[in-house]
Amino acid sequence: MIALLNGILIEKSITQCIVDVRGVGYRVVVPLTTFYELPEIGRPVVIHIHTHVREDAVHLYGFHSREERAVFQLMISVSGIGPKLAINVLSGIDAGELIRAVTTDDLNRLTGIPGVGKKTAERMILEMKDKAAKFGRESVPVGTVAVKTGDQVKDDALSALVNLGYKGSAVKEIIERIAREDKETPSLDRLLKAALKTLAG
Hints:
CATH topology of the largest domain: DNA polymerase, domain 1
Number of strands: 5
CATH architecture of the largest domain: Orthogonal Bundle
Number of domains: 3
Number of helices: 9
Oligomer: single chain
CATH superfamily of the largest domain: 5' to 3' exonuclease, C-terminal subdomain
């Protein structure tokens, strides 16, 4: 099983990246929290990997820290939560905040994540709470990404949030408002974080 990739980043998007390790390109699915941490194209990168094997395919899920990978693995141990939903959750809430929500029985915060209904949130609390306590209350740090033009940043943010399950019309309005209020062209990570904070209420 692949547990870590140490190579050169040759491609990245808001949902995945490709890492070249000695001439072999590995496609890795990543949450937004890891996307924020990715370096520029062509730079060295280290990604902690969870290898998910199915009968018809092998998927690599990547994380910028061992702790975030451990939280992902804890989530997929919950009945009814697969890798896709777990990645979606970590794109809508960072690992530290997720652990806090689980350990404090914060159903409202969990159900505010697209794809997480009340029953799923209750299962997460029931099945994760005891193990989640060991992760502590510290949030996973979030970095920065390269700055694009204003329109590109807004388009990328809209695409990312729609992929997470938020409604396009509501998200677009929030993104436009945040962009107007920002005196400088917002970076993608800053715009996404501000939008997610607004959507979380």
